[in-house]
Amino acid sequence: MKNKGILVVVSGFSGAGKGTLMKALLEKYDNYALSISATTRKPRAGEVHGREYFFVEKETFESMIKGDQLIEYAQYVKHYYGTPKEYVLQKMEEGKDVILEIEIQGALKVKEKYPDTLLLFVMPPSAMELRRRLVGRGTETADVIEARLKRAAKEAEGMESYDYILINDDVDTCVEEMHHLIQSQHHKAAYHLDFMRQMEEELNRL
Predict the structure, then answer these.
(1) At residue 94, what are phi and psi to the nearest 5 degrees?
(2) Going by C-beta distance under 8 Å and a sequence separation of 6 or more, which residues neighbour residue 113?
(3) Backbone dihedral region for residue 102 (phi beyond 0: left; psi -120 to 50: alpha; all else: beta)
(4) Are 101 and 14 in contact (CB under 8 A)?
(5) Which of 47, 90, 103, 121 could potentially form a cystine with 162 if both were Cys, beta carbons 3.0 to 4.6 Å apart?
(6) In terms of Cα–Cα distance, which of 40, 119, 31, 45 is closest to 78?
(7) In 3-state terms, what secondary structure has residue 168?
């Protein structure tokens, strides 16, 4: 019998290296699927429908909300972003552990709907290192970097809601820690209720 996959939410500060970690994890192990979000914003140069995002019209997205077709959704700067339910549940049925890379508000909504969800929060070794990484990208203005650091300070208030904190100091080490944490969840009693009931019945018949 193929084990059902686990739902995992990965959040973290901008600049903590979530994207790099996800890429490394998916390249190293084949039992993961990265959930693709739906959005009403237009594709940016190089983005492909069904790869970076499912790009949909506002009316389509709102009908997905009404039809309970999203695990979670939020609105940022006039655009909707959300996690389509069908893709996630299908991958879990196939035995894949599905990773959602989303913000704290979305993570808590997922946990509310699916209490067995594993919540992981990625952070750098220090606040100074976070600033260094944001500056090192060389893609953002000083104002944007300051805004990201202010947002990180706000997000830090929600870290206690997570199951585990991962310090991303070395990518390879952090990937291994993330993999082991996720795989250890497969042994939780909550995921083996059917097997436990079967064992109980068999023992009672002996």
Answers:
(1) -75, -5
(2) 71, 72
(3) beta
(4) no
(5) 121
(6) 40
(7) coil
Residues 93-122: pLDDT tens digits? 999 999 999 888 889 989 999 999 999 999
Q: What is the token pair recorded at 160?
A: 């206690």
Neighbours of 161 (CB within 10 A): 13
Q: Which two tokens stand for residue 45?
A: 């140069």
Which range marks the domain in which residue 110 is found?
A: 7-35+96-205
How is residue 184 written in tokens?
A: 């250890």
Domain assignment present for residue 63? The answer is no
Alpha-carbon Rg for the chain in angstroms:
19
What residues pair up with 165 in beta bridges, in sequence order?
A: 121
Residue 70: both structure tokens together: 């999203």
Total-model pTM: 0.82
Q: How far apart are CA 59 and CA 112, in angstroms?
A: 26
What CATH number is given to the structural domain containing 127? 3.40.50.300
Mean pLDDT in residue range 87-91: 93
State how beta strands 164-167 and 37-39 pair: unpaired
Q: For residues 6-39, b (16+ Cβ closer than 10 Å) or e, as one string?
A: bbbbbbbbbbbbbeebbebbeeeeeebbbbbbbb
How does pLDDT run across 118-152, given as a tens digit for each residue? 999 999 988 888 888 888 877 778 888 888 888 88
| Cα Dmax for the chain | 71
- Asked whether the beta carbons of 120 and 178 are under 8 A apart, the reply is yes
